[in-house]
Write a structure and sequence with these properties.
2 copies of one chain form a homodimer. Chain A has about 425 residues and is of the alpha/beta class. Chain A folds into 3 domains: about 1-135, NAD(P)-binding Rossmann-like Domain (Rossmann fold), CATH 3.40.50.720; about 145-305, Dihydrodipicolinate Reductase, domain 2; about 350-430, ACT domain (Alpha-Beta Plaits). The first copy, chain A, contains 14 helices and 18 strands. Chain A has helices at about 15-35, 45-55, 70-75, 90-100, 110-130, 145-150, 165-180, 180-190, 200-205, 205-220, 240-245, 310-325, 365-375, 405-415, and strands spanning about 1-10, 35-45, 65, 80-85, 105-110, 130-135, 155-165, 230, 250-260, 265-275, 285-295, 300-305, 345, 350-360, 380-390, 395-400, 405, 420-430. In chain A, helix 1 links the parallel strand 1 and strand 2 (about 35-45). The termini of chain A are far apart. At the A-B interface, helix 1, helix 6, strand 12 and helix 12 of A face helix 1, helix 6, strand 12 and helix 12 of B.
């Protein structure tokens, strides 16, 4: 029986999950695939601390497997596959490159290191003949990487839209269901370990933006770098916004959206209202879902756990078996450079509908004035809702516009007469 | 540039779709993958008829490509990839075997030929070193084959549940939305070309059962043959059943269900009520969806077009690019024989809840008598609904049971006192 020796860079939550799956499934995988997968080295920051955490979690990685020297993993002669679970760009990316340069196949769940160092990592893998796999880097167990690289390789994908960050989806779901404000739900999520002590990467949309840059690159067969992704987080979303949207039949989600029309490409992550019967409206809590549209495939929706030690481990171990069987990984067929694809015309003037919430003085002529400003910028109003007079004597006005260019919308909002109304919120709406 | 020559067995609807995709995307695929895909021979039943049909559809396959001799496709020295779109078991299976024996890679969308001849076809592929791909054989563009073969290879899948026949889903969706009876909707579907003149393969569940035998084999890593699948169609479903289910919060679907618990395996296709907020309840019309549960991956839902020339072509062309790039196909890791997996204990005594509709005489004691019979067979009633007295003076009684063994349920139903009630319908309920 062929033995395949594996090393881990990082032994935390996901490393523990992969260890557990490989321990429990080792005999079964021997039977299924004729490969004996053995984990021999696990890089940790601090061995004593790692032993304590693993003991508490019931993860039985022997002390002899633990090391604080990454070269014990990346340069060990017997290790053939290196799995990276450190997170963050560095030193993860340079350790992976070192492993590839030493002929190891590399499997990563790290969207940041991949998104920012994809070209170098792929070049190192191609040069050494080792493999590079990253199914778990986007959407956890959702099989979106293999679907874009293989199933849809000959299709012409023009839209990818997804909920690809579990933390923000958990927060927005609870805000929606419980009518609570952002700060309160965030604190509770932090207490439950569902949001980081520093939640910026999730709540400000960076995590989604890294993932979207990977998905858009694969979907459109050209490099879409992280810097191209327009990004807005959920930190200024209020319970009032969500309630007003619900009154009009909408549910709020942090969506990652990539569209391509001819050579015009737009990539954006922002809070988005979708109709309450939209497939993505029902993707709640820590679920992730990704919707793909192509010229030939029509619509495909993929849904599953976007995080969690075992679902992520399932995706990683699928890659491990591929690597152990020496299946040639499919690399993106576009020229994977550090620059954006030259042939794409990146646009930040996308067409969307918008939800606009204004606080306005309650007197005749106000609505007419607002409508006139909108009209002058060619932003057309589809529906309008006036809420009861507030204690301060002002009214809430909520508009949903027809699709309009982003820049027209911004111009219209900037030109509103401050003496009669103030902009409380603008949230884009996707059909 | 590497040229890859392709032959088609069958030039109908799907063949036309693949021809169109490859024509429109040929230059793009050259750029993406460095392969020039050229279709050189297309086997048709009758050249004159094929020319006429293609002309009507705008499919420009030149007359010189058409042949009525299958060996022009399966034995042509220049053809490397043979795509089979004939449908039906024979002669499709023997033509595919002939192509594999002549060293061609074979790609098929034909679940019948595959389900019934999988072992022989795989053996022929492995012997000659050619490849065998069949992503489009189940669920059209839904990437379920690759997900089971690769992404979930190291997981322990215990449940697959899906809507994998578009025709029956279309019929049931219209019966549900319009309150019409089966015969009327079937006739309309036939008129629209959405059901075959002889609809048996779809409406009696054979199509779903072939597909389920493929999915269950892959999911459980052992051979589950077509003959093992318990199969009930939708031909005796009435508008009344659907309406009564709706009254109790359920939606009717033809589900294909495979479950594994230890070595106990159950595979069944039958009309099934699911709660109206169940993810599969909203999969309407010709959409397909497949739900997978595993020990590590948790829940994955895949949704997309299960049929149609272009979505199916998208899936097939993904396989074609793999074959053209000489990517080694992943074969199932179980021993693919013509027999069922010996280690599986196939069970037909599954536990399900059931929807039972009775017509009963309207007098005291009837309900008590029915409840007593049920209780004696250990079938416990969860909810009950009595509908108004009918013109014949009888009442409709509808029960939803708690989960009970199938055989207990059948015994209970067979023991009901015919002088007081008659069984109108029994439909299983899945959570």
């Amino acid at each position: 029986m062929k033995k395949t020796v594996i090393g881990f860079l990082g032994g935390g939550n996901i490393g523990g999950g992969v260890w557990r799956l490989l321990s429990e499934m080792r005999e079964e995988i021997k039977k299924r695939d004729g490969v004996d997968l053995e984990v021999r080295k696990v890089l940790v920051k601090d061995i004593a601390e790692a032993l304590e955490i693993n003991a508490a979690k019931g993860i039985d990685i022997p002390v002899g497997c633990l090391t604080q020297d990454y070269t014990d993993v990346t340069r060990d002669d017997e290790i053939q596959i290196v799995c990276e679970f450190m997170g963050g760009e560095q030193p993860a990316a340079s350790y992976m490159e070192d492993a590839l340069n030493h002929g190891k196949s590399v499997i990563t769940a790290n969207k940041v290191a991949l998104a920012l160092n994809w070209a170098q990592l792929q070049a190192a893998a191609e040069k050494s003949g080792a493999g590079l796999w990253y199914e778990a880097s986007v959407g956890g167990v959702i099989p979106v990487i293999r679907v874009l690289l293989q199933n849809l390789e000959s299709d012409s994908v023009d839209r990818v839209m997804g909920i690809i960050n579990g933390t923000t989806n958990y927060i927005l779901t609870r805000m929606t269901n419980e009518g609570k404000d952002y700060d309160e739900v965030l604190r509770d999520a932090q207490r439950l370990g569902l949001a980081e002590p520093n939640p910026a990467a999730d709540v400000e949309g960076m995590d989604s933006a890294y993932k979207l840059s990977i998905l858009a690159s694969l979907a459109f067969h050209g490099r879409v770098t992280y810097g191209r992704v327009h990004r807005e987080g959920i930190t200024n979303i209020t319970a009032t916004d969500i309630a007003c949207g619900a009154d009009m039949g909408y549910v709020l989600k942090l969506l990652a959206i990539a569209k391509k029309d001819g050579n015009k490409v737009e990539v954006r992550v922002h809070p988005t209202f979708v109709k309450k019967d939209h497939p993505l409206a029902k993707v709640d809590g820590s679920l992730n879902a990704i919707f793909i549209h192509g010229k030939y495939c029509n619509d495909i929706t993929l849904q599953g756990r976007g995080a969690g030690d075992l679902p992520t481990a399932s995706a990683i171990c699928g890659d491990i078996v591929d690597a152990a069987l020496c299946v040639k990984p499919r690399y993106p067929s576009f020229k994977n450079t550090v620059e954006d694809e030259a042939s794409f015309a990146f646009s930040d003037n996308w067409n969307t509908r918008a939800f606009i919430r204004l606080s306005a003085v309650d007197r005749p002529g106000v609505l007419a004035s607002i409508a006139k400003t909108m009209m002058e910028e060619e932003v057309s109003i589809a529906t309008m809702l006036q809420k009861d007079v507030q204690p301060d004597g002002r009214v809430q006005l909520i508009f949903i516009t027809h699709p309009a260019p982003e820049q027209s919308l911004r111009r219209a909002l900037s030109r509103l007469d401050a003496s009669i109304c103030s902009l409380e919120q603008m949230i884009r709406v996707e059909d």
